[in-house]
Specification:
Chain lengths: ~180, ~400
């Protein structure tokens, strides 16, 4: 499967690295590669600056935005990982940008000003993991009911749930 | 209210006064499944459309962390149930990328044929039901008749019409037979005739054209920034197709065109879908005559995948091998790495972000559903449209609520 994917030209990613080094002076970026995919870890404190620099380097589309709870991951030092899957629409180059977050401060700036597609993706991450995005224009839960209390994709939330469903108010036809 | 006023993000209280709110869904024939829209209307003009989703949320991604790579395929094909096999192919494409498995040529070809059949399957439903919603029942019957043939092809290969669960890590559940090949050949031969009828009924139908042209326009810039992919993006002039740009399976071997349009409206999206069906037929035509012989499971490393079913039933080694493949301490192990892999599903880029933790289960199995990104663009597409256009726009972006909510 992997051998048939043509290796994205390393020239392209080198050019991106040079561009990012210019626009992000003093920001520690940590590069890695796995199965022909380029990944970069950037500090959460410089989030918006980094995301704008990525967009400026040609990554016009946010393919996906998600999070991973590293609570039970062996040798993990941080609690949450926020993942931005970026795509350069013209060259097809992909970059997976990650940042780490720890409790109690789970607030990061919203990426909606950079890519408008981040809107629902950020709401879903909040819905499932409780990570807050400041500056989001319409910040509330996306999939679960607004009165839901927990963040079910966290590893300390049981697969069976905590019985929320049984406690939902039942509205009869007469009351509605 | 004049159109230019709609551009202002916040209407003042005076302008708000004449508006009325309409609750569209969650149960409505045109939503197909359960999704809800809260529409702000000025007479018949849609001022604002706020989607409310989550009615079908069933925690699929949480289940993905509990079930192993082979078990989760039964959940995956319930996401976009219009083209179940496309989901399975995308899921195992990502798993195989994480595990570093190289498929056999035969498996690649069979999966490619199914992926393209699913594209036709999905586009037929999208077009057929949208025409039905817009008031024409005939074309719908033409589309569903062909879909039935594809169901039969699926049933012959996997034993299941709908939720096939046909792919396995590194291979397929069963090998295909000669009569399956014949069924696909018949389908390829018959389809162009049905296509002509269908195309004549729909694409040149004046009512259909007037209901869809210049309705729900999405510009190229909005499509890129908003994360649109697949037919929706291609209809807005983003010429990008993962089959060509990041070739996976056997797509490199085939000759096909990427269909795109500049219109950005509903009609352009339908046009792209119509053209893509013909390209899919072209791919299947090339693939079905050239299916390589050989095993369907990736060979070499004995533990890496499930053995052929014939081997399991006929030899003790095969049975042991099969048993080992489901024992937690003998199964293959995913590296402690993460990977994002996407395929061109009928609706757009269907990606999976998988984190491996050294076991045969995903530590995190994130689905990147194309519907979610497309539906988030819905309120933008609805700007300046009429109430009756809601149905046309909904149909043109082909929202599948099970995939949207997971």
């Amino acid at each position: 499967m992997t051998t048939e994917t043509p290796k994205p030209s390393s020239v392209e990613i080198d050019a991106v690295k040079v561009k990012l080094a210019d626009s992000l002076i003093g920001v520690a970026l940590e590069w890695s590669e796995f199965r022909d995919q380029y990944r970069v870890v950037f500090p959460a404190t410089e989030l918006l600056k980094c995301l704008n620099a990525f967009k400026f380097a040609g990554f016009e589309q946010l393919s996906d935005l998600t999070a991973v709870d590293l609570l039970e991951y062996s040798n993990a030092t941080d609690r949450f990982e926020v993942v931005y899957c970026l795509l350069n629409v013209d060259t097809g180059l992909r970059l997976i940008a990650k940042t780490y977050l720890n409790e109690p401060d789970l607030t990061i700036p919203s990426a909606t000003s950079v890519w408008s597609g981040a809107d629902w993706l950020e709401r879903e991450v909040y819905d499932m993991y409780g990570i807050l995005f400041s500056g989001h224009p319409n910040f509330k839960r996306l999939l679960l009911p607004q009165e839901f209390q927990s963040f079910p994709m966290r590893k300390d939330y049981p697969v069976k749930g905590r019985g929320e469903r049984h406690n939902f108010p039942v509205i009869t036809r007469a009351e509605s | 209210m004049p159109l230019e006023l709609l551009e202002s993000p916040d209407l003042n209280a005076n302008q708000r006064e004449g508006l009325w709110t309409l609750n569209f869904g969650p149960q409505h024939p045109a939503t197909h499944t359960t999704l809800r829209l809260v529409l702000q209307l000025d007479g018949e003009m849609v001022i604002d459309a706020e989607p409310d989703i989550g009615f079908l949320h069933s925690g699929f991604e949480k289940l993905g962390e509990v079930l192993d790579f082979n078990q989760y395929v039964t959940i995956v094909d319930r996401m976009n149930y219009i083209s179940p096999m496309a989901n399975e192919i995308a899921w195992h494409h990502a798993v195989e990328k994480l595990l570093g498995i190289d498929l056999t040529p035969r498996c690649k070809y069979i999966r490619t044929i199914f992926a393209e059949l699913m594209r036709i399957h999905d586009h037929l439903l999208c077009l057929g039901t949208c025409v039905l919603d817009l008031g024409g029942a005939t074309a719908f019957m033409y589309a569903f008749n062909e879909r039935e043939t594809i169901y039969e092809i699926c049933e012959r290969a996997s034993g299941q019409r709908f939720h096939t669960s046909y792919t396995r890590v590194g291979g397929l559940l069963y090998d295909v037979t000669d009569d399956w090949v014949k069924m696909v050949r018949d389908f390829v031969r018959n389809f162009p005739k049905v296509y002509r009828d269908f195309s004549g009924l729909v694409m040149k139908n004046r009512i259909f054209v007037e209901r869809t042209r210049d309705v729900g326009v999405l510009s190229r810039e909005e499509a890129i920034a908003g994360g649109a992919t697949g037919p929706v993006a291609r209809a807005s002039g983003v010429v990008r197709d993962l089959r060509r740009d990041e070739p996976y399976l056997a797509y490199e071997d085939f000759d096909f065109d990427v269909c795109a349009s500049q219109g950005g409206d509903c009609y352009a999206r339908f046009q792209v879908r119509m053209m893509e069906m013909l390209e899919s037929i072209k791919i299947i035509e090339q693939a079905i005559e050239n299916i390589p012989a050989g095993p369907i499971f990736a060979v070499g490393t004995g533990k890496e995948s499930m053995p052929d079913k014939r081997e399991v039933y006929r030899s003790i080694e095969g049975l042991i091998h099969h048993f080992e493949s489901v024992m937690p301490n003998r199964q293959m192990q995913a590296p402690k790495e993460s990977v994002y892999a996407a395929t061109e599903s009928p609706n757009g880029e269907l990606g999976y972000y998988i984190v491996g933790d050294g076991s045969f289960r995903a530590y995190r199995a994130r689905t990147r559903p194309p519907s979610l990104l497309h539906f988030s663009l819905f309120s933008r597409m609805m700007r300046g449209c009429m109430l009756s256009d809601v149905v046309a726009v909904l149909g043109s972006i082909n929202i599948i609520a099970a995939e949207l909510d997971r």
